[in-house]
C-alpha cells in the first residue's frame, strides 16, 4: 500500500493543494492484529469520505493528496515530538493514538513503545510531510505563491472534546499566523455567507500540518477546514449522502473560485 495518493489537476494547474491526511482507512496487518477487532473494522475517528467530497478539486486545477493509512496508525496532523496542540483540557489523541476521541482503548494488549512509534514516524509520517513540502515548493517555484488547504471532518458530537455540538464549518489558520489576512478573509467570508454555521479558529485553529507549512512571509499559505460529518453524510454519520454533499460542495467550490483569484 502506498503511503499517499496524489490526484493531479485535470484543468490548468492553479497554486492550491488540498491535503486529506485523515481519510485513509488502511491498517498494516501487523498493526491491525493488535487493535480491538471492532475498532479496526470501523475506525471511528476517520475523516470518512473527505477525499470523495473534494473530488471536484482537480477539475478546478487543484492538486489533491490523500493519505492511505488510517490516523490510528499514525496521526499526520500531530507534532512529531508529540507536543500538544491545545492546552485547554480537551482530550487530544497522540501522534500514535492509544485511545479514540472519547478515551476508549484501541489496543488489546501492550501499546506501541517508543521504538515502534519512531519506526512509524519514519515509515508513514515523514514521507507524507516530505511530499506535501515538495508539492508546495514546486508550486511556489512555478507560481510564486502556494496555498495548502487541509481538509478534515468530525462527528457533530464528540463528548471527549466538547460537550456541545460542533459548528458546521470551522476555519483554522493558527490565529492568523499560517496565511495572509486577505486569504483568510476570502475563505471565511465564503463560508460565513453560506447557510452553514461557520466559526473562525474556535474550537479548532489548525493542526500541525497547517501550523508547520503555513509561512505567509514566504508566500506559502495554509488553511484548515474542519466540518461536521452531517454536512455530507446522513444523520447516522456512517453513510455518504449525495444530497447533503452536493449542497456543501457548492459552498466549497465557490470558496475555491475566490481563493484561486486571490492567489493567481
What is the terminal separation in angstroms?
35 Å
CATH level-3 fold name: Aminopeptidase
- β-sheet strand percentage: 5-15%
The CATH fourth-level homologous superfamily: Zn-dependent exopeptidases
| Shape estimate | globular
Secondary-structure element sequence?
EEHHHEHEEHEHEH
Estimated structural class? alpha/beta
Counting DSSP E segments of at least 2 residues, the number of strands comes to 7
Summarize the biggest pleated sheet: 7 strands, mixed
Strand order of the largest sheet: 1-3-2-4-7-5-6
**Total discrete domains:** 1
CATH class: Alpha Beta
What's the helix count? Answer: 7
Which architecture name does CATH use? 3-Layer(aba) Sandwich
Structure description:
There is one protein chain. The protein has seven helices and seven strands, in the order E-E-H-H-H-E-H-E-E-H-E-H-E-H. 38% of the residues are buried. The protein has helices at residues 29-32, 37-41, 50-53, 114-143, 181-192, 208-213, 242-263; strands at 4-7, 16-20, 63-67, 146-154, 169-172, 198-200, 220-228. The mean pLDDT is 96. The longest helix is centred in the middle third of the chain and has 30 residues, at 114-143. Strand 5 (169-172), helix 5 and strand 6 form a beta-alpha-beta unit. The chain is globular. It has a seven-stranded mixed beta sheet with strand order 1-3-2-4-7-5-6. The chain has 264 residues and is of the alpha/beta class. The chain has one domain (4-263): Zn-dependent exopeptidases (Aminopeptidase, 3-Layer(aba) Sandwich), CATH 3.40.630. Helix content is 31%, strand content 15%. This is N-formylglutamate amidohydrolase.
Amino acid at each position: 500500500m502506498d503511503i499517499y495518493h496524489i490526484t493531479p489537476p485535470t484543468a490548468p494547474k492553479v497554486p492550491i493543494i488540498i491535503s486529506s491526511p485523515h481519510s485513509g482507512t488502511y491498517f498494516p496487518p501487523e498493526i491491525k492484529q493488535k487493535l480491538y477487532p471492532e475498532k479496526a473494522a470501523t475506525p471511528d475517528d476517520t475523516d470518512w469520505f473527505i477525499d470523495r467530497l473534494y473530488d471536484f478539486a482537480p477539475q478546478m486545477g487543484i492538486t489533491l493528496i490523500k493519505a492511505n493509512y488510517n490516523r490510528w496508525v499514525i496521526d499526520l496532523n500531530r507534532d512529531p515530538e508529540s507536543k500538544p496542540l491545545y492546552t485547554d483540557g480537551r482530550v487530544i489523541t497522540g501522534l500514535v493514538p492509544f485511545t479514540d476521541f472519547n478515551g476508549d482503548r484501541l489496543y488489546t494488549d501492550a501499546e506501541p513503545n517508543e521504538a515502534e512509534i519512531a519506526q512509524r514516524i519514519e515509515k508513514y509520517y515523514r514521507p507524507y510531510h516530505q511530499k506535501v513540502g515538495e508539492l508546495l515548493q514546486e508550486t511556489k517555484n512555478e507560481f510564486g505563491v502556494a496555498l495548502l488547504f487541509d481538509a478534515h471532518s468530525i462527528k457533530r458530537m464528540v463528548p471527549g472534546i466538547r460537550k456541545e455540538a460542533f459548528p458546521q464549518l470551522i476555519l483554522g489558520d493558527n490565529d492568523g499566523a499560517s496565511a495572509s489576512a486577505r486569504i483568510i478573509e476570502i475563505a471565511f467570508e465564503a463560508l460565513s455567507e453560506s447557510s452553514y454555521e461557520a466559526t473562525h479558529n474556535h474550537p479548532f485553529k489548525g493542526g500541525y500540518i497547517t501550523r508547520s507549512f503555513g509561512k505567509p512571509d514566504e508566500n506559502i499559505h495554509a488553511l484548515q477546514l474542519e466540518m461536521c460529518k452531517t454536512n455530507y453524510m446522513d444523520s447516522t454519520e456512517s453513510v455518504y449522502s449525495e444530497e447533503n454533499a452536493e449542497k456543501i460542495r457548492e459552498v466549497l467550490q465557490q470558496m475555491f473560485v475566490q481563493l484561486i483569484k486571490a492567489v493567481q
